[in-house]
Amino acid sequence: MKTINPTTTKAWQELQKHFKENKHLKIKKMFINNKNRKQDFTYSLPNFELDLSKNLITQKTIQLLLNLADEMCLKEKIDALFTAKKINVTENRAVLHTALRDFSDTEILVDTKNIKPEITKTLHKIKTFSENIISGKTTGYTGKAFTDIVNVGIGGSDLGPKMVVNALKFYKNHLKTHFISNIDGDHSAEILKELNPETTLFILVSKTFTTQETITNAKTIQQWFLKKATKNDIKHNFVAVSTNIEKAQGFGIAKENIFTMWDWVGGRFSLWSAVGLSISISIGFDNFKELLLGANQMDNHFKNTPFSKNLPVLDALVSIWYTNFYQTQTEAILPYTQYLEQFVPFIQQLLMESNGKSTDLNKQPVNYQTGTIIWGNVGTNMQHAFMQLIHQGTKLIPTQFIGFKKPLHNNLEHHKKLLANFYAQGEALAFGKSKEKVHLELKLNGNKDKIESLLPYKIFTGNKPSTYITLDKLTPFSLGKLIAFYEHKTFVQGVLWNINSFDQFGVELGKELANKKLA
Ligand code: F6P
């Protein structure tokens, strides 16, 4: 497959020229000149809308970015992703998180073996296991029904399930779900304090089953458990999710209590596999399946839609426009729902572990920016924390607002206010407040004497770009769609930067040195 340096393409040269000519674009002016700008730059899927109109882009920008996607062979690479080509070249692996949510009859061959039956078998095991835990049919070692579930894992074995369980709290059953990840002993100590070993199920999640944090925490938990129970009881209260069956068994987990994973699913893309067991137990298998179906809808859109209407492709392209031409360093993700409190850390791993690379697919050091620093928090809390810098600071920070039209509660008063803030922020960023307006306001508010001293501080230059992602309602289905949207955005950026988004050698050196220091 063609792997070229994007800066050598015709489209890149043209984008550079276009950037120089349009550096002084004004969002406000573009809205005045085109009354249909919002519609012209809004792209939709059922109950999912991507509004790019408040960005520093024109139709020509989009066209040139689409040319870049073509020159970088994006279509071929998307096909390679879905047809199990070993696109994770450094690890010689296929990348098939999309297969985990593909309920069609199409075979997917990895090294001539159809992987669909294994996926179905694991899904069936997840279903039966979750249902038995929820109903109380499967019990802890003393025969009491489970009350608490603890997911023990880190990185992709923690952030995905934790984010989803938290986001879908509204759909949760009676079981309490906890997450232990940090090697800091305080993390496990604080959680274990609340738990009864008889009624707690521990899910040890580690793709490799060698991760220091997870193994250390698992050992500590077992010691705590064995203060009350015996070794023979472990099989009732501990299960594992791993590709490394031997190591999991070596740890004392019964073979039938091990849920398999596969090397063709990367850690940060793994919540759709048995890594999502805590999700299925917390909200029930039917809801877990809805999450997968939502993601599958986004997969089909991504795979089959022309790039000019393809939501994850367009969003990735606009982000490249800022990163590589405006030379912005960061992107803020701002979900307007408390339920998405854990969304930013999840997306941080997804985008930054995937695309924080400086060697390209030709083994050459890159001579352009890759990766974006992702940060953010939920609205409206963050309006009272860091928004000042985005509105009036010196840095250009493209922002992504995520919001839901309908709330899950019945208090319309709250929701109206939330949405008013959601839309107000983007408007303030884009259109700002002029000197003349500030002047008039101070005058009308009886502050004529303060005009001279206050006026410069109250001006908002505006012209700060933002993107709106609007969904109908937070459901397992819509959340699945949203996560898959960001997964594909990550992939598209990796393709356009000519890097492998699916390895993570950058985390190894720290681990190696920590082990040496420990010794
Ligand atoms: O931080 C590196 C990493 O390898 C992540 O990619 C992964 O999600 C995490 O560690 C956990 O790995 P494992 O599931 O093998 O314990």
The helicity comes to 40-55%
**Extended strand count:** 13
Give the ligands present: 6-O-phosphono-beta-D-fructofuranose
Judged by helices, strands and strand pairing, the structural class is alpha/beta
Span of the ends, CA to CA: 44 Å
Extract low-pLDDT stretches: none
Number of domains: 3
Q: How much strand content do the residues show?
A: 5-15%
Highest-level CATH class of the largest domain: Alpha Beta
The CATH H-level homologous superfamily of the largest domain: Glucose-6-phosphate isomerase like protein, domain 1
Helix run count = 21
Q: Give the spatial strand order of the biggest sheet.
A: 1-2-13-12-10-11
Structure write-up:
With 519 residues, this protein is α/β, with parallel strands linked by helices. The protein folds into three domains: 6-32 and 47-72 and 305-431 and 465-507, Rossmann fold, CATH 3.40.50.10490; 109-288, Rossmann fold (3-Layer(aba) Sandwich), CATH 3.40.50; 432-464, no CATH class. It is built from 21 helices and 13 strands. Strands 1-2-13-12-10-11 form a six-stranded mixed sheet, sandwiched between helices. Strands 6-5-7-8-9 form a five-stranded parallel sheet, sandwiched between helices. α13 (285-304) packs parallel to α20 and α14 (311-326) packs across α20 (476-496). The chain is globular. It binds 6-O-phosphono-beta-D-fructofuranose (F6P). The site of 6-O-phosphono-beta-D-fructofuranose has 15 residues, from loops. The site of 6-O-phosphono-beta-D-fructofuranose (F6P) has 15 residues, from loops.
